[in-house]
């Protein structure tokens, strides 16, 4: 198979184009074997398959949480509400204990589910694919749920945070 032609754009132009794709925002959480709770903000979440129920997300190889996410059997994808912007920032940047003072409860798999998440997916860490500077994680969903209230989702677009307005 012929290999790809080299890109005719730089990383900034690639980021600019990718930024036009509006996404929701999630926090992926897990509990290390030591009991330490780990979480990172991720917008790379997407659905893969209905039967079996599969989802995916990708993690930068430089992330300090990589060894835990690679080794753990389970993690939770928490879908954020617009009212959870502070949590989104905290789990993207804070160097210390990101869970300090953050309300959460253990799900059926024992992994932490954040209070107030619009939806959550408790996943078995089914497979991982090494690609470029990220690892793609495919999770098999064992449990999922929704809060079921009318709060708006957090939306990430052009590097900024938004929520949704109905079109009509
Ligand atoms: C809106 C938003 C989306 C992000 N999406 C991702 C993502 O999909 N994958 C990723 O590896 N990092 C993503 N990040 C950056 C990580 O949250 C951040 O690098 C991570 O929390 C670093 O944690 P760690 O080094 O402690 O593992 C995102 C950050 C923000 C603000």
Automatic annotation (TrEMBL):
Keyword Oxidoreductase assigned: yes
Gene Ontology MF: a single term: FMN binding
Annotated ranges, domain Flavin reductase like: 18-163
Signal peptide stretch: none
Protein name per its UniProtKB record: Flavin reductase (DIM6/NTAB) family NADH-FMN oxidoreductase RutF
Origin superkingdom: Bacteria
UniProt keyword DNA repair, yes or no: no
InterPro entries: Flavin_Rdtase-like_dom, NADH-dep_flavin_reductase, Split_barrel_FMN-bd
Keywords: Oxidoreductase
Pfam families: Flavin_Reduct
Family note: Belongs to the non-flavoprotein flavin reductase family.
């Amino acid at each position: 198979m012929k290999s790809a032609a080299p890109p005719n754009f730089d990383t900034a132009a690639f980021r600019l184009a990718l930024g036009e794709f509006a996404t929701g925002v999630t926090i992926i959480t897990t509990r290390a074997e030591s009991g330490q709770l780990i979480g990172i903000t991720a917008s790379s979440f997407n659905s893969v398959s209905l039967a079996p129920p599969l989802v995916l997300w990708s993690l930068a190889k430089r992330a300090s949480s990589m060894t835990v996410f690679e080794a753990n059997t389970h993690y939770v994808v928490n879908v954020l509400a617009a009212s959870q912007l502070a949590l989104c920032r905290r789990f993207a940047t804070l160097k210390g204990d990101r869970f300090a003072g953050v309300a959460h409860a253990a799900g059926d798999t024992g992994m932490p589910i954040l209070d107030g998440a619009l939806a959550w997916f408790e996943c078995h860490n089914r497979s991982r694919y090494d690609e470029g500077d990220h690892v793609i994680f495919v999770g098999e969903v064992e449990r999922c749920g929704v809060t079921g209230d009318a709060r708006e989702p957090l939306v990430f677009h052009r590097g900024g945070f938004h929520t949704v307005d109905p079109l009509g």
